[in-house]
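Input record, target 12 of the design panel.
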């Protein structure tokens, strides 16, 4: 998926969240079938992932404070493959940082995304973009003007002001918070457009590396 130089060693810590078009709760992750094998509630899967790196390094290059967004669409069950994907890299990154981000978030440098790359059939593109990240309490958001407006918030829990966490359910994090998409949760690019307002979402801290 990428011809950029691949860092030999990298590690990132920060936050991720996602917003898909499944009804709450997403059958791709939570069903009686193995993970990613159930058909999405809308037939196709349309999901956006936002990432913020609090601290990170790739072969000595700092990735602190940088953001990325990954878009994916599958025509059926996610595990069946035929994914179409698009990647947006923080325009504040210099050439070395951008190469490292591209290698990490395409899976070329190993790590969690590498487990998904065999499912990808179409790369729509990789772009530098002005990504703005926001995190406050139980809310996460990322924006690219005129392209991506994605925000999610925790679903109500039995204990007020608490979150519902699911464990051992997602390839990106050991535990994920159950959430739903904000109103106006949209993406439009590459001749496609979707609105995931009120649909399924998750968020979690991440700690990734390509260490064996």
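The sequence produced for target 12 reads:
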């Amino acid at each position: 998926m990428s011809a950029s130089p691949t860092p030999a060693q990298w590690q990132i810590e920060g936050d991720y969240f996602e917003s898909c078009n499944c009804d709450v709760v997403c059958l791709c992750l939570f069903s009686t079938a193995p993970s990613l094998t159930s058909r999405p509630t809308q037939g196709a899967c349309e999901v956006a992932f936002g990432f913020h790196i609090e601290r990170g390094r790739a072969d000595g290059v700092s990735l602190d404070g940088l953001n990325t967004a990954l878009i994916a669409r599958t025509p059926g069950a996610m595990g069946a493959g035929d994914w179409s994907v698009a990647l947006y890299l923080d325009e504040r990154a210099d050439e070395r940082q951008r190469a490292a981000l591209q290698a990490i978030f395409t899976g070329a440098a190993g790590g969690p995304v590498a487990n998904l790359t065999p499912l990808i059939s179409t790369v729509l593109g990789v772009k530098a973009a002005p990504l703005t990240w926001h995190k406050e309490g139980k809310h996460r958001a990322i924006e690219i003007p005129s392209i991506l407006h994605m925000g999610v918030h925790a679903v109500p829990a039995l204990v007020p002001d608490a979150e519902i966490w699911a464990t051992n359910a997602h390839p990106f994090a050991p535990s994920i918070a159950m959430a739903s998409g904000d109103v106006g949760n949209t993406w439009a690019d590459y001749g496609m457009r979707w609105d995931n307002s009120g649909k399924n979402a998750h968020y979690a801290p991440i700690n990734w590396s390509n260490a064996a």
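Residues 95-105 form the longest helix (11 residues).
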